[in-house]
C-alpha cells in the first residue's frame, strides 16, 4: 500500500537451519519404543520449520509460520528439548541492532538449547508478520483497512505476550530483541498504529469522540517512546522508530487539541476553542520540527496548515464577533483517551485447522503418570503376592514338619505314599535336578554380560568428564560450555540405580544358591524313578490300622482344605498379575486433556485403590483362614501321633518323607525363581544397552561440541582476540536526549506492555529455564516386568529383583553438538 502516514513494520529475526529429525527420533525410540513409527511426523516437522523460517515471505503467506508455532506449542509437553535431553541447538540472528562500539552496532547471532527460545523467536517473527500484513493492505478500501487494524492489534498482542513469556523463562539475556523494555515499546507502537488507523476515520466521528481517539493514539505512542528511551532499550530500537514514536505522540496531541477545539466551537465556547487551537498549533509545530524522516514531512505540514487555518479563523471570530475571555491554558480540562484499539491476545492454535503431527504421542507427564501407575501397581502386586507365597511357604513347611499328607497315606513296608509319588512325577515332568543345574549355570553368564555393559557405560561418562575438566583447567574462562558433571547428573543417577539393581540381584542369587545347596540331595532323590525312591526309604510297620479312625478322616478333610486354600491363592495371584490398565490410561488422558496437569497422581492413587482394595481384602482373609487351619491341623496331628505306634525305623522313614516334602516345595520355588531370574537378566540387557546408547549419544554430542569450541578458541588465539564467555550486552551511559521530555507518570524498571486477555505461561523455576513445568520433566522407563524372582520368604534378608515400577530417570544427550 502507499504509506503517506509512515506506518512501520517490525524487522524479522533470521533463523538458521538445524536438524530436528535425528535427536527427536532417538528420543522417541528410547522413550516410547518402536510401537509406532513417527518418522513421517518427525520429517514433516523438520520440513515445516524449513518452509516456515527459511523460505517464507511473510507478506505473501504466513500460514506455515503460524502452523510451525502451533506445532511447537503442541509438543512442549511431549518432547523435552533441552541441553541434557533432546539436544537441538536453535540459532537465530537478532532483528534489532545492539548499539555501541566505535563503528556502530551490528546484529548479533545467538543460540540456545531451549525449546522456549525457539518459540520466543518464532513468536517475535509472528509479531513482525502481522505488522507486514498490515502494511500490505490498501487503506483506501474499507475491508482492507479493517484487516490492517486487526493485524496491528494482533502484532501488539504478540509482542505483549512475548514479553511475559520471555520473563517467565528467563530468556532476556539470549537476545537484545527480548529486552522487556524493547518488547513493551514495540507492543505499544503497534497499538498506536492501530489507533491511528481508527483516527483516519475520524471525519465520520463527532469531534468529542475524535479527540478521545486521537488522545488514545497519542498515549500509545508516548508509552512506546518512554519504553524505547529506557536505559536498556535506547541503543537497541532503531533511531528512526524512536523519532517516529515521539513525532507521532506530538502529532496526535495536536490532533486531540484540534478536535477538542472543534467540539468547543460546537458547544459555543469560542474562547476555549481559541486556546485549544493555539495549543494544537504549538504541538503541530514541535512535531514538524522534530521529524527526521523527509517522507513523513508532508503529512505534518498538512496538519500544520489545517490547524493554522482553524486558529486564525477562531481568533478572528472571537475578536470581532463573540469577544469571549480566553481561559488559562493551564487550567483547561485534559482530554481523556478512548481506548478503542486494544491488543488482541495470542490464542492457540493460531491456525484454525491445525493438525498436530504428534497427536498420538503420549505427553511426558502422561507417560510419567502411566509409569507411576505401573510402578505402584507392581509394588502392591509384589507385596500382596509376597504375603500369599510366604503364607503358603509357611504352610508347606508346617505340613512337611508333620510329614503330612504322607503320614496318613503311608501303608508301611517299602511302599511310597501316593502324595510323594505324585510330587516325584511332577518334578521329573519339569526336568528334575538337571533343569535346575542348567539354569544355575546360565545365571552367571547373564549377570556378567549386564555388568560389563554398565561398567563400559560408566567408563565412557568418566572419560568424557575427565577430558572436559582437563580442558577447562587449561583454557580457564575461555572454556565456556556447560560443565559435564552438571549435564550428567540424571545419567549418573540412572547408573547408580542400575548398579543397585544388579547388586540386589547378586545378593538374591546367593540366597537362592544356598537354598539349592540345602535341598539338593532330596531333589536328586525325587528326580529318580519310583522304585529307586522306594529303595532309599526305610521299611516300617504299617499305619494302615488307623486309616478308618476319625482322626485320620479329619486329617484328610483338613488336607482337602489346604488344597482348596492353595487353589484360591493361585486365582488371587493371577488376578493380582493381570489387572488391566486401559481404564486408568483413558482417565489419565482425560485429566490431561482437560488441563489438569497436576492431577495425574490423584488419579493414579484412586485407580490403584479401586483395583487392589478388594484383592488386598481377599489376601487378608486367606491369611487369616490359614491361622485357624494350622491350629486345627496341629490339634488333629497331635491326636494322630498319640494313637500311632512306631519304632526307630519308622521315625527314620518319616524324617526322610519330611525332607522329600520340603525338597518338593523348594524345587517348585527354585524353579520359579530361576525362570523369573533368567527373564529378569534377559529383560535388563536391552535396557542397559539402551542406557549405553543414550550415554554414547551424549558423549558423541559433547565431543562434537568440544571440537567446535576448540576451533573457536584457536581462531581467537590466532586472530589475537581470544573468545570470551557470552555475556548480556552492556550499553554505554546515555547522552542527553535531543527530544523534549514527555510528561508521563514514573515507570517500573520493566515497562509494561499493553495488556491482553491471554494468560502468561507458567514461570520456570529459578535456575531451570524449561519449556514446560518441571513436573513433566522425568519420563519413566520400565524395568524388567514380572514377580520377584526370589523367594519372598527371604525378602527380609535380601532385596528382590526390581519390578516394572522401579524408579526411572530421563534420557539425555539425544542430538548433536552446538553448531558453528
TrEMBL record:
The keyword Coiled coil is assigned to this record: yes
Gene Ontology CC terms, in alphabetical order: endosome
Composition bias, Pro residues: 742-751
Disordered, as annotated region: 715-767
Coiled coil ranges: 555-582, 616-677
Protein name (database record): BRO1 domain-containing protein
Naturally occurring in which organism (per UniProt): Rotaria magnacalcarata
Limits of the BRO1 domain: 6-395
Matches recorded under InterPro entries: ALIX_V_dom, BRO1_dom, BRO1_sf
Record-level GO BP terms: mitotic cytokinesis
